[in-house]
Each structure stands twice: as structure tokens, then as C-alpha cells.
Amino acid sequence: MKKGASHRQAEAHLDRLNAEYAKLHKAYESYFWTSYMGDHGVDERMNEAQAARDAFRSDPKLKAETDALIAAAAGPIRRRLELWSHFFSLYQAPAHAAAIKAKAVALDAKIMRIQTSRKEGYRDPATKRFVPASQNRMRFIMRTDPDERVRKACFDALEKLPYDVIDDYIEAVGLRNEYARALGYADFYEYKARIDENMSKKELFSIFQKIYDRTRYAFKGVRALEKKLAREGKPGLRKPWNTGYYLTGDFAKEEDPYFRFEDALGRWGRSFAALGVGFKGGTVLFDLLDRKGKHHNGFCHYPVLVRYKDGKRLPASCGVASNAVLGQVGAGMREGEVLFHEAGHAADRLNSMQPDACINTEYPPSTVSWAETHSMFMDTMYSSIEWRSRYARNEKGEPYPFSLFERKLAATHVMRPLGMMGIISVVFFEKEVYGCRKLTRAKLIEIATRLSKRYADRSEDSISLLNLPHIYSWESSAYYHGYGLAELGVAQWRDHFFKRYGYIVDNPRVGKELARIWSYASLYPAKKLVRMATGAKLGPEAYIKGVTASREVVVARAKARIARLKRVPLSKKPVDLDGHIVMMDGKKRICDSSKSFEDMDTRYRKWLKAVKK
Fold first, then answer.
1. What is the pLDDT of residues 485-516, one digit of tens each?
2. Is 160 in contact with 126 (CB distance < 8 Å)?
3. How far is CA 367 from CA 233, 360, 363, 457, 458, in A?
4. Nearest to 181 by CA among 244, 118, 96
5. Gap between the Cα atoms of 272 and 261, Å rounded
6. Nearest of 262, 508, 512, 506 to residue 390 by alpha carbon
7. pLDDT, tens digit, for every residue of 467-487?
């Protein structure tokens, strides 16, 4: 059957949209990677590339052309045109709004330049000398250093950092709100909630208020523990520089031998391969070490999108960045988590089987909550006691001790119900910031201090909310709720897998289900994809049930899951991730998996050893 003229015209239009958007997206993302890796000489070109990409997305002529073709189309072609029409509708804006956004994005770049080029560190309380240290390193020190004076010195140094950009941030908030109002929204948070999640602010905040109301009882337990520890000679549990150390500092040192940094890459690869997770022929770049000028937060971005040409699927590529501090206690464990988390993002979009670039990115119509559900699912697998009992071993080959798990649980169980409070604090902080009629420096500090105390119940004031990297970027501001919604989705998904299969770690049937869901990319709304994956409507019940479980229930469940995993043979096969892995350090290419994953792992270990010297 011959194709009609309208059908051929529609296909040609789709081909043009895909080619042009993929090109614009790649240009922006390539500059983004270079800039965030520390080379800010490209910032102006990055902003120009972002403006060109945004102009494409908001072009009313392209939307009109697409809509005109829909009426005469049918079947899959009509559905694809409708996807593009919806995509364009998300970004339509009056002409003057584009100028507002351009100004706001330029301000974001200025803030990042200041944050990544400034001198960071703390004043040694003993010698009074300045000790250079990144934000990430100072946070590690606060969790692991036995000297309270040093921990407090790091806290004090971190508290000063927001003042470097506080006035620029206030201006950025104003510009973002101005843009949102130009589009008919009350403020930027309402705009983001609708565009990113298709939810109203009321619906969104009611979910987090419910979690807060159901879990805040645990603050009483923390205060009781504070009194108990004070009697034992450990006063001040609720001081911000003491909480992490008192609860996990000793455990961090005890756990460190089981999570050596040099083991992180190999363990991640073997675990993903055993799960049956790969990258569908795509390329993944990893840049893992912290260094001056580099962005302070881990991320995964996709410069080359999955798309089709002449009916053939073209694989995608992505870049994964993190900030490991070599030699720092806890760095290996943290790096393992980042690898699992960010590679979860990579697997999500690189496994898409959809032909249209507009639904293969991390941007709307994709949602933050759905994207984070995949990455945080991998987090929970990595942090589970059954994964640790199998993969986490010290130099002697001894497995992570169950007794250590029990002792750590006993010490930290009081905090389990409060696990969402960090996310909730950011959600309500940004809600107030964008809802403030006249935001001033004094008002901003008051909001940050008040909400930090409400949702962390610390005994000392803190403006740590203003050190969160997400709030300073147009793309990542007013979307932290996505992490919280993802926590809910992960809890439901894990329940689904445990009920169906009895185990998750090294279960290729789980990997097969993940790949099936990933193949859809953003073809459907996030709420529908959650139901397709978990069999249930997204809600907080599974999460709340998990974090409020008694210590006895948690221990019994852990023992049962370890016992179940023992019946699953440990894979001895070569690691096959169905893709090309490249290890980078800035602009330096260290090694890749072209020969084998194992060869790459060996060479990366050798490089790390040389770097440590």
C-alpha cells in the first residue's frame, strides 16, 4: 500500500523535528558538561546554545505546523505528532518571557562561576591556619572527624558560603517568578509543578505534609537519645556538626574497609550485569573525582539522544559526574552509591526504544520524580544488607558483618522515620521563597533558618538549605519534590518485586522488567508509568510503612532476604553492560571498556593508585 502525500509529509516533518532537536540538544549538553567539569570559558556559548534549544521548544510556528498535520494523520504517525504537539505546548511563552529567561540563565551561570572558583575551606581550630577543602570534603569531615572543634569549624565555614551569592540568588528568584507570571502562573514553583509533574501545588504539598505529620513523632525519640548520650559523655547530639558523627561516625570508619574506593567501579559493573541491566549499545562517560572548579553535585546528562534514522535505532550517550574525595573515610561507600544512582539514570534513557527525541530527554514531558525513581531504586539495592552481604568485602575477602548492620541499625533506628525530612525541608523552603512577595536578604535567611529548625530539629540555627546546588539553577530549582515522590515510587516498586520474585539483587527478571519500563521513556505520563511498573497508584503508604517498621521487623526481614539470596549463584561471567564505558578526569581520558570491562577496571585501579601518591 502506497503512502499518501499527507503521510509522507508528516514523516518528513517528524524527521526534521528529530534531527533539529537532537542537534540543538547535543550542542547545549556538550557545553554543559564542559562547564560543569570546570572549564567556564564555554559558559557564554552554553547560554547561547541553551537559548537556541529553548527557542526551538517554544517556537509557535513548529507547533502550528505539527497541529496542522495531525488532522490528516492516523495510527502511529498521528500518535507521534501528538507527542510533539504536547511537547511544544509545554514550552510556549510570550516573546518578552524569553528575554526574562535568558537574563535568569545568565545569572545562573554567574552564580556557578562564583561557587566553583572561590576559595573553600575551614580554619583549623588548633593551628588557626586555613585548610583548603571543598564543600564535599567538609561534609565528610563533619560526619567522620573525632574532634568536635574541627567538625564545628567545617560547619561554620559552610554556613558562610551562601553569602557569596545570596543577592544574585534573590535576583534569580525574582526573574524566575517574573517569567512564570508572564505565562499565567502564580509563581515559579506553580509553573514547575505543573510543567514537571502535572500536579498542582496543593496536591504536591499535601503529600509531603502527610508524610511530615505521620513521621515527626520520631523527633521526640531523637531528643530522648540526646539526653541519654549526654549522660554517657556525648553531649549535643542535635548540634548540626554532631548529629551525623554521633550516629554514624564510628560506623563510617568501621564500614570503610568494606567499601574501598578502588572496588566501587568493579562492584557496580558486576552487580548491574548480574541484574541484566545494560545500556543498549550506548556510551557512558564517568568523571568521578572531586577537583577545584568542578560542579559540587553528582549528575547524569545525555548529550546524544536515542533516535531513529531510516528505521534504524541509533544508540545514545551520557556523562556521569560525581565528587569522590580520595583517601577520605566514607568516600568509597559514597562513590558506590553515586555510581549506582547515576548509572540508574543512564540506563533509563539509554534503554529507550522510542523514535522521537522529545520524549528521550530528562526534560519535560519527562518528570523529575519518574527519572529519580529509577536512580533511587538502584540506591536502595546498593544500600540493602543483602547486597552488602554479597558484594561488600574487605581486603581479606571477608563479607560485611551482619553484626555491624545490627549495631548500626540499633544506633540509627530512631532516625529512620525522619529520612524524608531533608527533602521536605527543601520543598517547603522553595515554596516559601517563590511565594514571598518581596524577598530580601533578611527574609531569605529567616526562611532558611526557621525551616531548617522545623524539619531537622537541630539545637543550633543553620542556613544550610542555601548550600543546596539545585536551588541555584533554573533547571533544577523548584523540583526537589521529585526526589520525595521518587522515594514513594521506589518503596512501591520494591514491594512489587519482593512480592513477585522474593528478591531483587542479581535477579535478571527484575532487570527485564526495568528494561521494559525504560523502553517507554516518557511516552506516557509519569503517573501511568508508575502504575504500569508497580501495579498501584503512587502514594505514601508503602514508604511510611517501611520507615516506621520496628527494629525487630527490619532485622527479621534482613535475615530472610540474605537467606533468599544465598540460593542465587554468584555470577562468574565477564561483565557485559551492552555499551561502551569511558573513564575520564576532566579532559583526560584514562581508560575505557573497548577491550573488556575487567581490563578497564584494572587500569582505572592502577591510575587511582598513582593519583593517591
1. 999 999 999 999 999 999 999 999 999 999 99
2. no
3. 47, 12, 7, 31, 32
4. 96
5. 18
6. 506
7. 999 999 998 999 999 999 999
Contact 173, 474 (CB under 8 A): no
Dist. CA 520–CA 188, nearest whole Å: 29
Distances (CA, A) of 293 to 35, 120, 301, 599: 9, 11, 18, 30
Q: Using the predicted structure, report yes or no on whether residue 1 has a pLDDT greater than 50.
A: no
Q: With helix as H, strand as E and coil as C, how does 560-572 read?
A: HHHHHHCCCCCCC
CA distances from 433 to 223, 254, 478 (A): 29, 41, 10
Predicted TM-score (pTM) of the model is: 0.90
Cβ 342 vs Cβ 322: under 8 Å: yes
- Grid coordinates of 574: 565477564
Count of residues making up the chain: 613
C-alpha cell at 548: 516506621
Q: CA geometry: angle at 11 spanning 8 and 15, to 5°?
A: 140
Residue 160 cell numbers, joined: 558562610
- Tell me the three cell numbers of residue 29: 549538553
Which residues on neighbouring strands pair with residue 582, listed in sequence order? 285, 592
Q: How far apart are CA 9 and CA 69, in angstroms?
A: 8
CA 145 to CA 147: how far, in whole Å? 6
Strand pairing of 299-304 and 317-324? antiparallel
Residues with Cβ < 8 Å from 269, sequence gap 6 or more?
A: 575, 577, 581, 597, 601
The CA distance from 366 to 197, in Å, is: 8
Strand partners, 132: 121
Sheet with 579-585, strands from edge to edge, namely 299-304, 317-324, 282-289, 579-585, 588-592
Residue 429 CA to its chain's centroid (Å): 19
At 62, list the grid cell.
Answer: 513548529
The enclosing H or E element of 591 equals strand 588-592
